[in-house]
Specification:
The protein is of the alpha/beta class. It is 35% helix and 24% strand. It has one domain (8-176): Rossmann fold (3-Layer(aba) Sandwich). The strands form two sheets. It has a six-stranded parallel sheet, with helices on both faces. Strands 6-7 form a two-stranded antiparallel ribbon. The two termini are 30 Å apart.
Length: 183
């Protein structure tokens, strides 16, 4: 068995299809990443026909335990950063409310408790959006509560909420630079 390289990225895939394929591709650009896959993300993977075939420095952890055992690595210094992308409105709402009953929300909670920075690509950021669905572009009209939860999450300490895929890419690149510089 090969030795686990630490520290690592913790990337969470949720049940949002918003730029899902692009997020999936961005994971491939990261060295030493653990991909946490929620049950809902498993469904989205099937809808888009995607396989979890990442570089060998990437581990895939599925949401299969009641207590989310895989998040124990946060207390052992395994991770330097968390990315939740794409983040469903359900995940954002639970993060805002402090509910940690899925692997996604548990990862976010543990990152906060360990004072690690989190990048969240929220899917509901404007009153009207266009997003790619498995069969083409669709218009989406987030509910006021979804927009309110996204705004509230922006106020959380050590949490950077990004509103576009371009912002996600640049924020991840910026974080890579901080890590390389020892920050």
């Amino acid at each position: 068995m090969t030795q686990l390289h630490t520290p690592r990225w913790a990337w969470v895939l949720t049940g949002s299809g918003h730029f899902f394929v692009e997020c999936f591709e961005l994971i491939h650009s990261l060295d030493f990443c653990d991909v946490f896959v929620t049950r809902a993300a498993d469904e989205v993977l099937r809808m888009y026909g995607l396989k979890l075939d990442f570089p060998e420095t990437t581990r895939v952890l599925h949401d299969k335990t009641a207590s989310a055992v895989p998040v124990g690595g946060f207390y052992q210094g395994v991770y330097h950063s968390v990315v939740i992308a794409p983040a469903s409105s359900n995940t954002v709402a639970k993060c805002v409310a402090g509910i940690s009953d899925t692997i996604a929300t548990n990862v976010y909670a543990q990152a906060g408790k360990c004072r690690l920075p989190s990048i969240v690509f929220a899917c509901d950021t404007a009153p009207e959006l266009e997003t790619m669905a498995p069969h083409g572009m669709v218009k989406v009209y987030p509910r006021p509560i979804d927009l309110e939860n996204t705004a509230r999450l922006k106020t959380f300490e050590l949490t950077k909420v990004v509103e576009s895929f371009a912002d996600l890419k640049s924020t991840v690149e910026h974080r890579k630079g901080e890590i390389a510089g020892g920050g």
